[in-house]
Write a structure and sequence with these properties.
132 residues, 3 helices, globular, disordered C terminus
Length: 132
């Protein structure tokens, strides 16, 4: 009986861990901001299980808050709010840091893969470019 309980706990822990990663994947992509914004592009990726924003200003963790779709921008002391369309998919990103308040639109996946390679300095996305 104890062994069955132990196995069930391992399976449940694995499923919960996977669900958390899957939910973070909802936010990944490239977000394009209007010309004249302090940053015109931000990439959102998962690195080692952590949601991370990448831009020309640097990289930062996006830490979950108690509100759905709202994250703390750790390195810059701001807020990232993801907005969903009627179909439930993330379509926009609002960034608020000090006196900066800007909204960006999520771009297509192929464009994001190129963007991520440029900022990450490696070719992890090469396989995806070849497949798609």
């Amino acid at each position: 009986m104890k062994q069955l309980f132990f196995v069930c706990m391992i399976v449940m822990t694995s499923l919960v861990s996977q669900a958390q990663t899957d939910s973070l994947a909802d936010y990944t992509g490239k977000y394009k901001f209007p010309d004249g914004s302090p940053v015109t592009e931000i990439g959102v990726v998962i690195e080692n299980g952590i949601l991370t924003a990448t831009s020309v200003m640097g990289n930062t963790e996006l830490r979950k808050t108690d509100n759905k779709d709202v994250f703390e921008i750790v390195a810059f002391g701001g807020t990232a709010t993801f907005k969903r369309a009627d179909d439930g998919k993330v379509k926009m990103l609002r960034v608020q840091v000090q006196d900066v308040d800007m909204e960006g639109t999520r771009q297509e996946a192929a464009v994001f893969l190129q963007f991520h390679d440029e900022f990450s300095g490696d070719n992890r996305c090469q396989l995806f470019r070849q497949l798609y």
